[in-house]
Structures are given as C-alpha cells and as structure tokens.
Predict the 3D structure of the following.
Amino acid sequence: MTDLASTRVLLVDGSQLITEGLRLSLHRTHCFRVVGIAHTVADAARCLRGVMVDLVVTDFDVPGAGPLRTVRDTAQFRPSARVVVLSNADSPSWARAALDAGAVAYLLKTSPVAELLPLIVAAVRGAPATIDARVGSLARLPSRMPPPASLGALSAREFDVLAEMAKGMDNARIAQRLFISNDTVKTHVKAILRKLGARDRAHAVAMVLGESSEAFVTT
C-alpha cells in the first residue's frame, strides 16, 4: 500500500481529545482519510464490520474489554488492515504483546506529532515492526528472544524488570523506575533467573539479547 491519499483510517481511543487531535493532524497531512472514530471496543468492532479500513490507530487498552481487543478484532474483521498501537506506557512487555497480537507498530502518545506521523506513514507502507525508541530494548529484538516456553513463564512485571536489567540498571534504579521496593526487585530477579535457568543477571540478559554477558554487567 503506497497511495497514502486513499488510506482509510479508523481512530480508536477512550479519549475524545486524543482522537480529535489525531484526526486533525492526519487531515492536515492530506495523506489519510479518517473514515471512523471509536471510543470503546464495541464501537470499534461496529466500525470494523461496517466500514472498509486500511489502517487502525488504537490505544493499547480501549474501554470495554481487555487490552489489545481492537487489535485482535481488526485481524478478524479486516485482516488486510495494518494496526498502529498508541500507548502511554514505555513497557517492553506491552510492546511485545501488541506485536504478538498483530500490530505493526507500538508508539508512545507522548511523542510529538511530527515524530509520530512519519512512523505511521512507514507502517502503512509496509515497514517492519516499529517500536518507539524509548521503549525498553527487549521489545526491539523479537528475533533474539529465548524460546516462548521460557519467556512465557515470566510475568509482565518480571519482563519489565528484565528490560531494565538489559539497560544496565541496578536494583535501586530499577525500583525507582518501576515504582516498586528494592526487596520486590530482588524477588523478581530471583524469579527471572530461576525461570530462565540463568546463572546470574548478565547471563539472563545475554540469553534474551543474544549478546556477550560482559556487555550487561550492572553498575
């Protein structure tokens, strides 16, 4: 799909302010045609059934059902449409879940519109899966993840802790960034090592990122 001017867009977000801002921004580009706006999962499903769309730009967790329901509904009702997920959370586990559900991009709502639009255009034109650069490194390396059986054993919070470990964060910094206690971080780290069968923190990160252990020793 390269003719952006004919790209039919469905905007899905619980906030009318968000959808209206996106509508105006897309309209100004003269590249997209917004054919539907939905504020709940049910509204989005009705639009997907009744209107032909090429692109869905949706919040991660739209009111009315569990996270990513609209992504899955798009795959069911409009399988040829591409889906871009917008989120407030720079969570690697959320980004991974979005891509696994069928989204082609996971972008942060806090990004300036001038940065978002080129990424949306790239997604429409068939670019590989895109994740906002500020999201943890684990989510940006899907081809280097450990086998699903071992990774799937991690909880969402353990995945987030592992992402911070991959950035070289020590326990105190991880606790600060994730708003949890040091003891909770230690508990998560122990669980991560056990579930992945890793010798230590550096080994756990190396298993996931496919890099040498020395590159990820924390300070």
Observations:
- The radius of gyration is 19 Å.
- DSSP finds ten helices and six strands in the chain.
- Residues 139-149, 211-219 have pLDDT under 50 and may be disordered.
